Every structure is written in structure tokens, then in C-alpha cells.
Amino acid sequence: MAAEAPRSLATRLGALLRTSTFQLTLFYTGLFSMSAALLAMFFYWSTIGLLVRETDATLKAEITGLAEQYLEHGLERLVQVIVHRIRNDQSGAMLYLFATRDNRPLAGNLMEWPRIESDVDGWVEFTHHRVDGRDVPARARVYLLGDGLHLLVGRNIEQLRQLKQVFNRALLLGVGLIFVLATGGGLLMSSRLLKRVGAMTEATGDIIAGQLDRRLEIRGSGDEFDELASRVNIMLDRLQALLATVRHVSDNIAHDLRTPLTRLRNRIELAARGAPASLRDELEASVDDADHLLTTFAALLRIARIESGSYDAEVEVLEVGTLVNDANELYLGFAQDKQLMLQAEIDGHALVRGDRNLLFQAITNLLDNAIKHSPPGGMVKVEVHSENGEVVIAVRDGGPGIPQDERGRVTQRFTRLDQSRSLPGSGLGLSLVKAVAEMHKGSLSFSDNGPGLCASLRLPSA
Amino acid sequence: MHLLVVEDDRDTREFIRNGLTQAGHSVDVAADGREGLFAATAQQFDLIVLDRMLPQIDGLTVLRTLRASGSRVPVLLLSAMGEVDQRVAGLRAGADDYLVKPFAFSELEARIEVLVRRTAPEGPTTVLRVGDLELDLMTRGVKRGEASIDLQPREFRLLEYLMRHAGQVVTRTMLLEHVWDYHFDPQTNVIDVHVSRLRAKIDRGFEPQLLHTVRGAGYRLAAEGGADGG
């Protein structure tokens, strides 16, 4: 059990992942995540991007201004301007450094030339060691003034960095959340869908197996599944009505042909009595043929009467063991002629409430079937036992059995499997057993006897 | 034998009349319940074949009226209404046997023979004899000539039934009903297997053969041979 649980869970998960709903969900999740990312990129560009661009523009304008001061008024003036700028910087974020070729500071609020390539003319980013001991990120532009002098104008971009981090975290969290929610929702939806489709698959399986009166569940939510289920149900109703019509027609044919056929049979019988010996054999063979047809018609009509509920059964409490023993005794000679062992194993005094003759007919039909399909030298065994308030009459043979997918079909009228076409029989025996079983609120089922067939007639205990 | 056939359907009535006449019976007919009841009370019959569904007075009422008036004439009820399940109602109303239409003529004939002979007065017998075959009901012993024959209980009942109706045709359905006590249609002629086993025990090695098969009808146990059912 323990080893099986995870496997079945894995199988179930596998089934879930294979559903079209889940795959669709996955696709939409991807699409949605991607558009969310695009949206975030646009936000980034229009907020943080804007700040970065503005900072750069400010720095560029500042350094250009300072360079002009140097070129027009010389070194002294540049130093003055830088000092003035630093004093007037309200934000305290601006960084200035004017240094000689060997990086000796001439003016500015940086203690030393930062650890960057000094001859770089362009944008640099570095870590600024503040006087209060804090390290902050900085972005700057370097300008070479000629004569080995170089100028750096920068800005503390700590806040920008923090903003970026907040944004990135929010983006990551948002996309992650979207992904988790979408996937979870998809799984939930798929599993609900899978449950409904599973219920439908199970119901249609039962219908295929022969339970033609089974219908798909309609939940009343009016969704497309209800729509589909009601359509399928309507289809089944029509199919069943059609089948009933066919059955009705065949029953009517049997009913209407019985009287003229009997008349024909009787005429031939009387004619045979006065006929010369040469004709007599032929006439008597015709009587046999007619009798065979009449037996088939009678069986067909009996099934129809039982199924339609118009058979007035004589219900009494019966001991199943007695019926089975009587049936075995009746069929023992027939079985022995086929070199078969016929055994009964009766467990206790199983009692049922039912019609004695009909139940006897059902049991002998099962026996008849088992004996006809068993190879010579084999054994046919009838077991009677009680389980869960039911009496089970199991007839086991050593014949070829019935393939799983044919088991629903063999109880339909005139069904004869290919392997049994050569055997005598009308194809009505099991239909009658099923009709009798259902009339007694019981059932007829088939299982593998490995090798052979086990036909189980289940009846409610009395 | 003097028989009365009460049947409203002309074809069936004439067919039964012809068949029974051919078989050597004298047959009166009635076409409805009132006519039938009148005929049945006016004359003495050996047996009445009575249809269940009749105009004027229905068959069951005719039967009940007859029985109420003290008549013990054997009545074979015919019915198109159903199968074995309708039997009980008919038998309860006082019928001696019951046959569902459409029926094989040989079945009707065999049942009539059995009913007519059954009511023939006979003293209490403990030993049944057919030719040199002897069945003792008290000791449950069976002998053919001097040889004693060992029979299974069911074979004994089968032989007893055949011997009680010696010379008459008994159908397979009758054997199922009276020897096995079940009303059903076997898918295979299992009765034939039982009869041939019985035949092997009572006839093999003896002359003449006693147990005859009557084609299209059933079996007949008789000392004087011939397969003719009539």
C-alpha cells in the first residue's frame, strides 16, 4: 500500500500535467509574465531611467561649464569656482576633484583620486569613501584638461541605487507572484476539469461495458460540460430507444410467428403419421427444425416478458444449494458424456427469495454454457457462498473464457462469440440469465478463471 | 374416449378436433364459454380441453362452476396468455393440466392420454410391471426377468413415471415437470442423456426393447414394440 501511494500520486500528477487545460494555463502564464516584464521595463525606463539620464545630463553640463572656466580664466579661477560650488551644494551629493598629473588634488571635496583609470575621459562609477566613514556608490565624469591636469565631477548615487533595488525586488516579487498564482490557478482548474472529465470517462466506460441505462452527471451549473453531458445523455436515450425498438420488433416477430409456425409444425407432424416411410424421415426432421425455432422464440419472449416486468413470478424463499444440486444432477450425465468433471461446492445454507423455476433455468443455462465451452477432460465447478448480504453462485469452467472487452456483449440477445459459433445454442442463454438476475435485483458478472471463465450470479440473500 | 373441446378460435378448434379424431377419439366442440358449460353439464365426458379466454363466460369461470357443481372430469386448460407463470392460477381454479398456446399437437395428445388414464380406476399397486420389467414401490427394487437392476434415485423416479404411464407417450416437458419438478426449457436435451442411461440399464442385453423414442414427441415405455405415438 505504502509503496503504491506515491506512484499513484505521481500518476495523478502526470495526468494533471498532461491535461490541455494545464498546458493552456502554462502558456498563458508565460505570456502574462512576459507582458508584465515588458510593462516593468517601460516603468523602469520612464522612472529610474529618467533619473539616471538627468543625473548624467547634470554632470555633463557641470563639467563642460568647469572646463570652459579653466580654458577661459585659467587654473586659479577653476579652483575658486569649484570651492564656490561645493559650498553652495545644498544636497551635498555633488563630488568634485581637480587633480594634477600625479593625482595630487588641487581642489574638490574628494580626498584622493578614486581608484579608476586616471586617463579615462568619460563615465566612471566608483566607491566613494566619505569622511563619516561610509562608503557610497558614485557616478562621475572625468575630463582631461591638458597639461596632465584632470577634472572629475560626480554625484552620490546611493539613493538611485536604493531605488533601483526596490524596483528590482518589486519586479521579481511581482513576476514570481504572477507565476505562482497563475500556475496554482491552472492546476486547480485542471484538477477540477480533470475530475469532471474523469467522471465522464468512467461513466462512458460503464456504458461501453453494457450498462446502457447509465447517464452522465449534470451538475446544474449550465457550463459547457453540462451542455456536453446533456447532449451525450440525449444521444444515449435515443440509442436506447432505438435498441428497444429493434428488440421490440424482434420480440413481435417471435410472437407473431409462433402461432403460424406451430400450426405448420403440427400439420407436418400429423402428415408424418400417415406418410410412407420414405417421406416420414424428412417430415420428422422438419418437425425437429420447427421445434428448435419455437424454442428460440419462446426464450426470446420469456426474456422480453421478464425484462418488461410482465412476468408474474411465484416468489418464495429458496435454498440455493438445493437448486444447484438439482441442476448438477440434471447435467451430470451430459458433462460425463463430454468427459468433464462436474462438482458443486456449497457453503452453508444460502437462502434467496425468488422464482424457483426461473432461478433453476438461470443456473442450468450457466451450467450448460460452462459444459459446452469446456474442453474434454476438464472440470466445471459450481460454488455457492454468501458475501455482503448476497448469495454468489459462481460457475467456473476451463474453456477459452471471454475477452474482457466482450464481457458486456455476451449478455445481449443472439450474441455468439466467434469461438463458440460452431457450438449448438441460440445465443439467448446468458441474456436470459441476466434478465432473471436483474428481475431478482441481482447481477450477472464474468471474471477470469485463469484459464476459463467464472460466471457469477449474485442474488440478494433472503 | 369422449372429449369436449371448448375453444373460440375456429382454426385451433378444428385443428384439435381433427387431430384427436384421427387419434381415435370422439370429439364434441363448443365455441364459447356458455355453450361449453352447457355441454359439459349436459353430458359425461372423459376429458375437457378448455380455452382460458372465451367469449360469454371465460374459461376459468367455466372451470370453477364445473368444480363447484361437483364435476371431477379432467380438464386441460389452454392459454395464450403467458408461460409458466400463468400455470398456477389455472391449476388453482381446478385444472388438471395446463398448456400454453401455441403448442405442439403431440404435447397436447400426450397430456390428454395421461390425464384420461390417470383417472381410470385402479387398485392400490405396490408393484409396477411392463413386460418382464418389474418395479417394486415398497422395496424400491427393480428387476428385469430375474436380473436385479441398480438405479440411482432419479432414475428410479424416471422409470416409475414411465411405468405408470406405460404405453403412453410422455414428452420431455412432462418428464421435467414430474420427475425433476421444474418448469423450464433446457438449452440442451439433457433429458435424453438421462433416458439413454436408463435405457442402458433396463434394455441392454434384454429382448424385447421396452423404452422407445417417439420422434418429435418424447418417449414411450411399452412391451409391444413400435415407435408410433398414436
Structure, briefly:
The complex is a heterodimer of chains A (462) and B (230). Chain A has 462 residues and is α+β, with helices and mostly antiparallel strands.
Write down how many β-strands of chain B occur, each being a DSSP E stretch of 2 or more residues: 12
Indicate the multimeric state. Answer: heterodimer
CATH superfamily of the largest domain in chain B: Response regulator
**Number of helices, where a helix is a run of at least 4 consecutive DSSP H or I residues of chain A:** 10
Separation of the first and last Cα atoms of chain A:
36 Å
SS content category of chain A = alpha+beta
Count of extended strands of chain A? 12
The second-level CATH architecture of the largest domain in chain A is: 2-Layer Sandwich
Radius of gyration of chain A: 48 Å
Note the total helix count of chain B: 8
What's the helical proportion of residues of chain B? 25-40%
N- to C-terminal distance of chain B = 14 Å
Helix amount of chain A: 55-70%
Low-pLDDT stretches of chain B are: 226-230
H/E series of chain B: EHEHEHEHEHEEEEHEHHEE
**Inertia-based shape of chain A:** rod-shaped
Contiguous low-pLDDT stretches of chain A (5 residues minimum) are: 1-5
How much beta of chain B, percentage-wise? Answer: 15-25%
